[in-house]
Amino acid sequence: MEFSVLTANPAKAEAGCIVVPILKGGELTPATAKLDDASERLIGQLIERGDFNAELGNTQLVPFAPGLNTDRLLLVGCGEQDKLTESRFRSALEAAMSALLKLPIDDAAIAFTDTDLGTSEVNWKARMIGEVANKALYRFDDFKTTKSEPPSLKHLTLLVSDPGEASAVEAGVKLGAAIGDGINLARQLGNLPGNVCTPRYLAEQATALGQHGNLSVTIHDEKALEEMGAGAILAVGKGSVEPPRLIVMEYKGAGDDEAPHVLIGKGITFDTGGISLKPGADMDEMKFDMCGAASVLGTMQTVLATQPKVNVIGIIAAAENMPGGRAIKPGDIITTLKGLTVEILNTDAEGRLVLCDALAYAERFKPASVVDIATLTGACVVALGAHAIGLFSNDDDMALDILEAGETAWDRAWHMPLWDEYQKQLDSHYADLANIGGRAAGAITAACYLSRFAEQYPWAHLDIAGVAWVGKKGATGRPVGLLSQYIFDREAEIASTAE
Ligand code: BES
Ligand code: MN
Ligand code: ZN
């Protein structure tokens, strides 16, 4: 989508449709009031007569509006003013976009930046418009013979009442649009079936990203993994004919002396459970077990589009977890890249295996911080459901940074404990540690396992098992929003210490 900003009287805006927020029982926003004045009180009358119910998410199209320069008017219900939170603002925007995309128009204007959201600023609101608009364009019909009609809407003008806010709105919508595109890339990769999106396919995607900008990409194949001693990634890949890959993407936005921030994604392109085979019901959803990797690729794309002055390294540990003749078995003991030996008590706890080698690999970059992102445990789905990302960290300051980034991006995480008391659940009779910690606190013991490989730097683990996809409806692209924000905040941190 193309975006522009207009500070003139909204009644002068020319477009196929103009979109206005309506609050239940509340006053009209400043821009809406101007439109109301210009249109012989059309909007006010529709509300007074009860023709439009401003319940959150309701929309009503008015096919023509006297006194306005637009062909149509779209009213969008935002519910009561005192209940209007960031989350409800986003829902209203989603409703607006879905109604707009059904219209046979190529441009629209939207007057949403002057809604009163308490503390949230105009830049944030503009950003949400950019993000939600670009997300709304995404369709996944690659495998349907009959494709859905692509939306005709190409251009969205953001109407701004206060000219002093124009530059903040411009910057906000640009950032939001780049985040929306990154989210869509993550959704696309997540939605692709396991027979298309293999470890090698993920490597190709990284290589393709490297073609566009200042991103250098290295792909480690099995031979390279053997040479470096990445025994855990290799172990997971052994049951499959699709070979594993360790994918490394280096973005340089700051000087060599700036320690990089590393993002590591779990890229299990299909998780059968291996010899500890999963039950059949809903196993198809395990094609989404690479959504951590997808979020790293999506974030790298957003980073390339926005070029923040910070060094970022994206790493993807990709493998397919299959039960083959050469597959790892319960009881097998492997040696990881870090040198620690692991007794594999359940081959379905494979995510932590591929990640532990990537975490050890990250040490060589002397990182300022490392975040791993993984659809790691069913236990996290039980604990937090579909809304909050499970956050675990060995550094409380870093945990706060992640929480804050999640709040800003509206891609929220919840801090979970990583106390020493849980660590002994990973004791093994035969090796340095086991790869599972029993039934209790499954999301925490999975994080405890990873923590053993992340002792050399500030580290956070995001368990996205509950939030990465919605049943059969597809991948959400989370947490590209949080990760992009985390990177932008680190850029701001570098800029403020340089002053
Ligand atoms: N990819 C799964 C986790 C998962 C399951 C995510 C369901 C989303 C929905 C992971 O590899 C896995 O199988 N974890 C096991 C760990 C167990 C064997 C300790 C789990 O959660 O059951
Ligand atoms: Mn598994
Ligand atoms: Zn898995």
Written overview of the protein:
- With 499 residues, the chain is α/β, with parallel strands linked by helices.
- The protein has 2 domains: 2-182, Leucine Aminopeptidase, subunit E, domain 1 (3-Layer(aba) Sandwich), CATH 3.40.220.10; 192-494, Zn peptidases (Aminopeptidase), CATH 3.40.630.
- 36% of the residues lie in helices and 20% in strands.
- The strands form 4 sheets. An 8-stranded mixed β-sheet has the order 7-8-10-9-13-17-14-15, sandwiched between helices. The chain has a 6-stranded mixed β-sheet with strand order 1-6-5-2-4-3, covered by helices on one side.
- Helix 4 links the parallel strand 5 (107-110) and strand 6.
- Helix 4 (122-136) packs parallel to helix 5 and helix 12 (396-409) crosses helix 14.
- The model has no long low-confidence stretch (mean pLDDT 97).
- Bound molecules: ligand BES, manganese (II) ion (MN) and zinc ion.
- Residues 271, 289, 346, 348-351, 375-379, 381, 436, 442, 465 line the site of ligand BES.
